[in-house]
Each structure stands twice: as C-alpha cells, then as structure tokens.
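>> Question from a student workshop board

For tomorrow's exercise we were told to take the sequence and the ligand below, predict the bound structure, and bring the output to class. My setup keeps failing. Could a helper post the expected result so I can at least see what it should look like? The ligand is adenosine-5'-triphosphate.
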Amino acid sequence: MSADARPDSSPTPSVARRLRQFVYPHRWGAVLTVLAYIGVAATEPLIPKLVGYAFGDGFTADAFPLWMVPVVLIGLYVIRGVFGFLGQYLFNWTLTRTVVDFRAALVSALLRLDAQVYTRMQPGTAVSKVVNDPQQIIHLVANVGLSVLRDGLPALAMIGFLFYLNWQLTLLSLIVTPLMALVMKKVNQRMRTMSTRAYDSQLLLVNRVDDMTRAWRVVRQFGAAAHERERFAEVSQTVRRNDLKTAAAGALAQPLSQFVASIGLSFIICVALWQARADNTGVKAFAEFVTALMLLTSRLRHLSDLAAPLTRAFVIAKGCFELMDATKEADAGTHELAAPAQGELVMEDVGLTYPGASQPALNGLSLAFAAGRTTALVGASGAGKSSIIHLLLGFGRPDAGRITLDGTDIETLTRLSLRRQFAVVSQDIVLFDDSVANNIAYAQPRDDARLEQALRAAHLWDFVQTLPEGVETNVGANGSKLSGGQRQRLAIARALYKDAPVWIFDEATSALDTESERAVQQALAAWSGRKTLIVIAHRLSTIRDADAIHVMGAGKLVETGTHAELLARDGAYAAMVRAQAGES
Ligand SMILES: Nc1ncnc2c1ncn2[C@@H]1O[C@H](COP(=O)(O)OP(=O)(O)OP(=O)(O)O)[C@@H](O)[C@H]1O
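>> Workshop helper replied:
Here is what the output should look like for this input. Compare the format with yours to find the bug.
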C-alpha cells in the first residue's frame, strides 16, 4: 500500500520475529529438519579425516584393505543422501504449512479492513500481497534456510574440526570476522534500501496492469494502447533499475567477502606452513588442516550469497505485515439481535465528513425510514444519499448524532448482526465469477424453491432457462457474460433471496427495460408491509408510489412527504419532477 514508504533503518528484527510466529505452530517440522541436516553435517568432517588418513597411512601396503575404500565412501554418501532427502522434505513440509497460515492471516486481515482502506488500495495490491508475496517470501526463505542448513551446519562442524586439529591457528583465522561483519552490514543496508524501492515500484506495476484489465474497454475506445504501454514501460523501467541496483549491491557481497577471506586464508596457510616446518609435523596434519579450511571457505562463500534473497524476503514480508496491520473496521458493538428486526431506522442529527474531505457529506441530518414501508431518497448527485446507506450498513461511523434500528443504537450491535438485517442492491453491481445459483444464494444455504422465487421476482427466470446449464451457468468475471440489465436483475435476485427485513435499492433498476422494471416493482409490492424498503432513484417516476419521499440537498434533508404532498408544496421535489418531465 505504501508505495512511497521509505525503508526504516532496522526493520528486520520485528519482521523476523513475526515471520517466526508463523513457523512456530509447525516447529516440529523445523526441529526435525535441523536434526536431519545435523546428520548430513556430522558426516562432513569425515571427508577430510579420510583424506588425511589416505595420505598418511594409505600409501603403506598393510594399512587397510582396498575394498574398504568404496564401502566407506559409498556408505558415507548414502547416509548423507538419506539425511539430505529427509531434511529437504521436512523443510518443505514446514514451509508449505507456514505459507497456508500466512495467507490465511492476510485474507482474514483483508476481510476486516476498514472501508477507507479500500478507497486507497488497488485490488491488484491486495492480490499481489495475498497470493504472490507469501509464496515468494517462502521461496526466498526456503532457499536461504536450505543453504544455511546445507552449508552453515557443515561450516560449523568444520570449524569445530579445525579447532580440534589446531585451535591456535583456527582462533587466528577468526581475526577477519569483524571486518567481514562490517562489509556485510554495509552491503545489506544498501540492498535493503534498493529492495524496498523495487518492491514498491513492483506494486505500482501490478496496479497498472490492474487498471489496464479493468478499463480495457476505455483503453480501446480511446485508442490508448500506446499511452498505456508508455505508462507501463515507465514503471517497468523503474522496477528494472531498482532490481539492478539491488542485484549490484548483492553481487558485491561475494567478491568483498571473498577478498576479506583471502586475506585471512593466505595468512593462515603461511602460519600453518611455518608451523609444519618448525614442528616437522609432516604432510598429514597440513593436508587435513588445509582441506578442512578449503571446504569451510567454499561453504562460507555460499553463505555470503544469502544476504540478497534474505533482504528481499524481509522487504516483501514487511509489505505483507503492512496489510495485516492496516486499520481494521471498528466493531465495538456487542449486542446481537435475537430475531430479525422490524426494520425501523431513525437518523438523529447525523453528521459525516469523509477523511480528507473539505465539506461534510451529511450535515445534521435527521430522518426516519418507517418499518414495513417504502421510503425513497432523492436529491442531486453528491447530495449524500449513498452516504446514508454507507452509515446504515456500518461501513463508517457518524461524526455526530446517532442511528437507531428499532430503537437500538446501531453502534451497540455487532457489525455481523447489523448487516444481517439488510439486503442491498448498490449502484455498482458486483458479481462473483461463479454460477447464477451461487451468485444468488451467496454465502447462504441453497434452497432451490427460494432460488426460483427470487429469479422469478427479479424477472430473470425465463432468461436463465435459456442458458446452457440453467442456474448452474457461470456468469463470468463480475458477470461479464451478462447484459447490464441482467447483471442488475441478478443482483436484485440475490438481495431478494437474502430475505432480510430491510431492503436497500440504490439505483437498482436504472439499467432495466420498462417491462422488467414493472415486473420487479410488482414483485416488491407483494412484500409491502413486511419489508422496510429504501429506494434511491434518479428517475422520479419509479418512486411515485413510495410511502414517503425524503429530498436531500448538500447533506441535509430538504423536504419530506408523499409524491402528492411534495407536488402540492411546490418545492425542490416539484422542481425536480418538472425538470424531468421537461427532459422526457
Ligand atoms: N470515500 C469518500 N471519500 C471522500 N468523499 C466522499 C467519499 N464518498 C463520497 N464522498 C463525497 O461525499 C459527498 C456525498 O456523496 P454520496 O455518494 O453520498 O452522494 P449521492 O447523493 O449518493 O450521489 P449520487 O447520486 O451521485 O450517487 C460527495 O460530495 C462525495 O464526493
């Protein structure tokens, strides 16, 4: 989300700790992995030992029978192979489980985000953070972890062996450690900065593609392919530059650490040779020590390559944790409604100003929606009609005043209990890439008789019969295989199926032909007296029969009455009716 977020100076410890929390439930897999790799590592010092033995005693005829060479060597590698396989398997067992938990945590965070977060975050960002990022983190950490186990443990074993062979000399070799640490610290700092920039610009790239896919029609209509390509290439170049800088910083790690290691190595070999000459210890001890040292150096070289993927993993994980930590929807209510509400909604002196807005969207608004009645909300665009729905559904909280449902302040209700009382058809139709039936019976038990009833009421039954698989036909991404009117009717059917006490229709019939609109209105009329119906409509002819009409203007209630009363008053509503009559 924070495309402009700068890397903080020490993000790694908390990120590492939080990542560890996800591994913790699967710690036994991790412990067994480590044990398996200890098995591999324990056999490592046997190699220089055998080399030393072969050099020392192997050249004399009666030292050991030659058949022992393949038996010992093959045996050693079989043991290493078994431990190696187990280690890798258990490692992935742990990681795949961790990824599932990590994704689950991200999805549950996503499902509880505050409505305002959705106004800032592009869907692509969420997809990237929930789907791709955990996988990427795990891949990177897996490779790092495996290398640490594969190279780090044998390196430790080898260091132990070197101490055993010649502790003074081994201790001397540690003098390069502080220098090595300093070099790696500098390289890591640079990599972290560049990785964060690369990650942020990559999210921008995801959002560009997201835009292009959603707005493909607009792009084609404007002949804007070249324009979009340019916009994409711009961000793509930024990603490339940041990736390159990260890679360059990472590529410095190995040569720099090797340079430091070579200083230590040459120094130690000199001292070892000097010792061998002085003590006359012979070729065996020297061969053992130098073979072990060389093996250690090659292991350490692999380890110095791990800084780059580890840094990248931490940067991505930090992005995921930002999503996990984003503001959650407040749900302070504790009260659950025992039965479906009657549906009387009252707003008392309600004020609402959106964050960052200069004008209030609602300003001291007081109005009521009577239970079992149809109330229409009308008013100019931007008057605050949808903001009322926003508050009724508990997506936002009023800055002032209160809203009650059957006399209970909705703030005291849990969000779940509150929203159970509403079925909404909003201006923006949202359908799932699923069958007609699953779109209608969304998140509710399937009841075929009720499904048919909802489809008939939404004037969609006959159409659905013509579909190749009837109600099981897939409607495409966001209902892309349906016409605008069919999508709207499907959303109406979904609302009717929910059978909530309050129905909200926000411009819900704007895309319907006259016949469908009449059919839907007749179906709704059949529920009259049993449902509280709130209708927002710009076409005033559709709300003529409402029990009450609230006329909104600039976040305030301008006038209220029935169609006839408002016409008689000859105020704002009458002017709107005249204006529309003039248009038609
Ligand atoms: N998330 C938001 N952040 C900031 N301002 C917002 C937000 N949503 C709505 N607004 C502003 O609040 C005011 C009321 O908007 P609202 O959507 O409630 O109007 P409306 O009457 O439903 O309009 P329309 O008939 O065009 O749908 C508008 O000025 C709008 O710009």
